Amino acid sequence: MPASLLVAPVRLAAAAAAVALSFGGLAQAQTELVIATVNNGHMIEMQKLGKHFEQANPDIKLKWVTLEEGVLRQRVTTDIATKGGQFDVMTIGLYEAPIWSKKGWLQELKTDAAYDVDDLLPAVRSGLSMDGKLFAAPFYAESSMLMYRKDLADKAGVQVPERPTWPQIKDLASKIHDPKNGVYGICLRGKPGWGDNMAFITTLVNTFGGQWFDMQWKPQLESKPWKEAVSFYVDLLKNYGPPGSSANSFNEILALTNSGKCGMWVDATIAASFVSDPKQSKVAAQMAFAQAPTMNTPKGANWLWSWNLAIPAGSKKVAAAQKFISWSTSKDYIQLVAKTNGWANVPTGTRKSTYANPEFQKAARFAAAEKTAIDSANPTDSTLPKSPYVGVQFAAIPEFQAIGIAVGQQMSSALAGRTTVDAALKAGQVTADREMRKGGYYK
Amino acid sequence: MKRLIPRLLLAPAIGTLFLWMIVPLGMTIYFSLIRYNLMQPDQTGFAGLENFEFFVTDPSFGAAVVNTLLLLGSVILVTVVLGVAIALLIHEPFPGRGIVRVLLISPFFVMPTVNALLWKNMMMNPIYGVLAQVWIFFGAQPVDWLTDHPLFSVIVMVAWQWLPFATLIFMTALQSMDTEQLEAARMDGATYLQQLRYLYLPHLGRSIAVVVMIEMIFLLGVFAEIYTTTAGGPGDASTNVTFLIFKQALLNFDAGVASAGALFAVVLANVASLFLIRLVGKNLDK
């Protein structure tokens, strides 16, 4: 056997060993970031575009845990509360951000000049900051607004103003309500849950001049604004709403609106892109947009919600996580989405520069209304009387989830006519009081 | 010595099973006695029976217990009665029996969440649901099922899911009926009702007991149907104990109170099975 033939396999083995070694070395240098996020369209897109980030940062590898909203909240909360350390980057809501940063559970975000932190919309930025420090970066944000059928309003001879009042809405609802032909005056959320019916009802109570807690943290559910607002809501839906309202939330009403059954709808701005999409909506061309209706005060009439990226305090990969968050919430990222998917699909609600972009304005015809709505929301000053809590359609305290859910159940009960508004509010007050005592806010 | 070796060899298996059972139970008991709210990590320490007190004095508690028992009782009743009826109907051969049987059994393979969404959106929706269309066809005002009869709606969904299970068991049981005895009864001039009373039902007794027992175990934990359709509402009209525990554990993040609730559910299940074992045991002894 010639010597060269013997050498070949030896060389091959050596080469293989060298390759294996270098890969091993690479794997050691590489940081793996575990990112927990929601299964919304914008986040799925981020996951796809993540390869651009990995190419630019070969030492960082991204690992995604994509979950449904409720499950994500449960996983992320249990992880951070028990210091589990499963995730390096977490997607958290505007509700969690202030609570967690106050508890010291989140790492402060440090951004460079290129990130242009002043470009962030002030309402969102203030909701994510504590003592002027940023603890989470907004990925996309939304507010609430009025969506209505222009054709029906025209037929009724009503001009809907830029910012209507609730009595005007009620009047219009009575004119276009036509259940015989399958058109209902107004559709609003009724399914119990702090993020379901209570999100809407809280904005309604805000604009009637109410609040969740007074400065002594006493629940205010039996106050005059609550009674008026909830009575108005129950009355409005009973007379001009679709049947089955107490089981309807965002998705159910979206289906009704898209099939042309809702004359008006006050809900998240994200819905605007769905109801005005001819592929999904039978009435896409007829839809028009205005600000959420007001009553005694415009304060707190539009809600504010954002999904944000944050780093848990105990993380050992802070530098890499910072890098990733700066990338995915940057102007460049928005440009990247626009280049790959078009301007109509960029994550909105976070940056002034997005709204200033003429191409975006052209692609999204609800953009102006959405920007106005987000700008008008102020989480630190959303109620007519002074409130001790942060948040527009929620109070950012740990006890709020339990209270919101319990009160939401009572509201749906009142809406279904199983109890009176007064009795429902009284029961809600008792529960809220119980939770606040349990939480040690007062004796 | 002779007994020691087999015992030693069995020990790992038994030990594992014991741990399997005792560790979760022990942890639940431990959590139920401490202050443990994920959102309030600064509040810790021994809580005594406070968690139990909070769970039992929850305004939804009474309604949840009543609803759990109502749900359990009605679904079992409906599935057993209709299950026996359907099994008897399709017992005799007829053309296409195979297809009919497959169709009858298929609801059992629909996932609970899908089942709930199907009923909620396609059947019971008061605007575009099938039932509403039927009501409108007859000129009636459509029923708003989930608002006006929430618990009844959940019972319908769960019963629809579990009826095939009961039917399947009864169908198989009927296969082993003694045909000669039946024939003899017919020759003696026994009416169908008499055959039912003295031949079919006694024969099915054992399988009825089995169906009741299995369904009871699974139905105590009905959750998906409630979560996806009514979220326990309106008010507490469709909240059961499982949903209440879920609310405490994963919506309020109060592991302490939820553990107390879980222990209560264990007690409830044991009380229910005590009755059942008496009942079923008698039946099986025969």
From TrEMBL, chain A:
Keywords: Signal. CDD domains: PBP2_TMBP_like. Gene3D superfamilies: Periplasmic binding protein-like II. It is found in: Periplasm. Transmembrane segments: none annotated. Residues 1-29 form the signal peptide. Pfam families: SBP_bac_1 (PF01547). Belongs to the bacterial solute-binding protein 1 family. This is Sugar ABC transporter substrate-binding protein. It comes from Roseateles amylovorans.
UniProtKB/TrEMBL annotation, chain B:
Its main location: membrane. The chain crosses the membrane at residues 9-33, 69-90, 102-119, 151-174, 204-224, 257-280. SUPFAM superfamilies: MetI-like (SSF161098). Coiled coil: none annotated. Keywords: Cell membrane, Membrane, Transmembrane, Transmembrane helix, Transport. Belongs to the binding-protein-dependent transport system permease family. This is Sugar ABC transporter permease.
